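=== RUN LOG ===
request id: a7f3
mode: sequence -> structure
chains: 1
length: 238
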Amino acid sequence: MSSSLLLLLRGPLQSWGDASRFLDRATAAQPTKSGVLGLVAAAQGRRRTDPLEDLAALSFAVRVDQPGALTRDYQTAERWQTGGGTSLVSRYYLSDAVFLAAIGAQDRALVEGIREALRSPRFPLYLGRRSCPANPDLVGDAASSIVDLSPVEALRGAPWRASRAHRRTRPREVRLPIFRDGEPGERGESRQDVPISFDQEHRRYGWRTVVADEEGALVENPEGSTATDPFFEEVVSA
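=== RESULT ===
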């Protein structure tokens, strides 16, 4: 039986880089597997040169509870080590976004060990970038943070964690998108975000298939509006 650890990812800013190049530092629309597993590795106290095969083998899914807004920040970067010039860098963030991620394994003890590491991390935890510290309620209480279900099933049954202000903009019934690891041969979006090495001198990432779950998670929203905008709902549920 699979066991899944639920992680609440929310904060003023998040940034989950998956296709950054040169002076444009992009963010994915939802947390990446490499980003969340990097957070786990930091909590466990792993060095950047330590092996990651056991973490990469974990199953992963993420639910979009509140998509947030894309924010761009212009920053200057100076090559102080070599005395080089100053460059203008564009960094992208998700502001006021809320996600629920699920990490799954067949070994419940392994998942419990990850939960304890996240509660007492060896290194600081970030939501993608160092400028985005992780929220204190990243891991819930013992009774609800681990469930004996697959990551997708766990996300379907978990409470909606969006802010009250966001709930009021949505209809009385909301379908939350869920993105999961694809099965062998299954069609989906190819992403290079499976960590092989976090070594700063030679970072490497493998490919995985990301599938948008057909059902998602259907939740009731008593605070929602009776006036539904189909176009808005289609955009935020994509």
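=== NOTES ===
The first strand starts at residue 3 and ends at 14.
The two ends are 30 Å apart (CA to CA).
=== END ===
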